[in-house]
Amino acid sequence: MGGKGFDEEFDVVVLGAGAAGAAAALGARQSGARVLVLDKADESTAGGNTRVSGSGWFINRDPERSKVFLRALCGPYPVAEDVVETWAVETARNSDWMRALGAPVGQSAQYHTEAEYLDADGSDCYAGMDTVGGRMGEGLLYDFLAGAVAEHGIEIRYATPAHELVTDQTGVTGVQTADGRRIGARGGVVLATGGFAANPAMVRDYLRLTDPPIWGSPHATGDGHRLAQRVGADLWHMDNMMTITGMRVDEGPGLYLALWGAHHYLFVDPDGRRFVDETAQNRHGHIRRGGAYEHFPLRPFHLVFDERMRAAGPLSPTREVLPVGWKLLMEDFRWSADNTAEIERGWIRRADTVGELAALIGADPGTLERTVALYNRACADGRDDQFGRSPDTLGPVSEPPFYVLDVAPLLGWSNGGPRRDGRARVLDTDGAAIDGLYAAGEISSTYSWAKDGGFHIADALAFGRVAGREAAGRAVVG
């Protein structure tokens, strides 16, 4: 038995076994603490979005310039300067820290070789993206970190959800699990429970999205957010997120529609009208439109395309091309090479004419016919006066049969959660630190607006280490 009514006690208890949780556990252990990690999922599905992510972290070659870059990306939604300072310093240490753990760190040669926001001041700090073995996805980062946690003698208890934080007059002192077990944390508790993308009510309330499919873990249900709120935590940038073009194929997480092949397609709204430059670069959830960046997509729409597009290759990238996402990695889903299996399943609908295609989506045939004709005329002229689509992407939609696919905002992650400071301490609504409570990773992402490639993992590793060290130091002092 532990003291103070606890069944057992540790120096630091970490909730969540993804990148932030593993980094916190390792950071605490490297500081001499006795650590326990709890994850609500079973071992086969634990690890949150880290397990199904691209698994890379951006290479920060200049901490001073990276401060400028982060401020620019936050735009009109700044985060506290102590957070900026810690982020800049600690993200620059990620690769060396991973190498010290024994990771075969290698730079990705295919993805995120340069910043997405090259026009932002400070982007010259971005030197590419490092991964485990120089390879994207495939759970490589999660597998390495789980192994490192085990090698450092840290226990992970799976299928053990936290029910509430235990507090006294000194702050947060432990955790009570769902089965009623009370576990003390002398230095503190680190929340690394992920986001809330898989919680429909929170998604509606904070993100203003209605039932979007998710790209990542179905375990991301905002558990840590509720734990923190119960003890008085303030919240920050709860409306920030990333969505990309996707689709729902059945119950559960959805699929990413990359549209990397031919360009014989256009987007139309439910009325059958174009509404955007279909090829605008999606910079981790934002496109540039009307002179500013905005979230995209936010509502369902339709992808209309022709036979050339259908035959050009899969609309959704295969695991061999982009090994990312719950559907591909955890369910081993395979999209057909020529899109015919998806036609047979009814996900892609076909018609001999554009007018007949309109009937399939409930749009006025004349409206959709005019939309396609105007777009095709732009293709012939080599100039899109409506939305400024680049001439080299203007592929006419003119070869029958014609196809339509219902597109949904695919929710990759949420960003907001309990507000924290540069020491990863959770803050209350008065701005004071809640003693003994820390947060790192997607539950409390640094990013209040835009973010670049490899930023989420970089943030999770950086503030995970900080949270673990801080909690361990509090245990020693206590």
UniProtKB/TrEMBL annotation:
UniProt cross-references to Pfam families, sorted A to Z: FAD_binding_2
Keywords noted in UniProt: FAD, Flavoprotein, Oxidoreductase
Cofactor requirements of the protein: FAD
Coiled-coil residue windows: none
GO biological process, one term: steroid metabolic process
Signal peptide: none
Span of domain FAD-dependent oxidoreductase 2 FAD-binding: 11-453
PANTHER family from the UniProt entry: 3-OXOSTEROID 1-DEHYDROGENASE, FUMARATE REDUCTASE
Protein name: FAD-dependent oxidoreductase
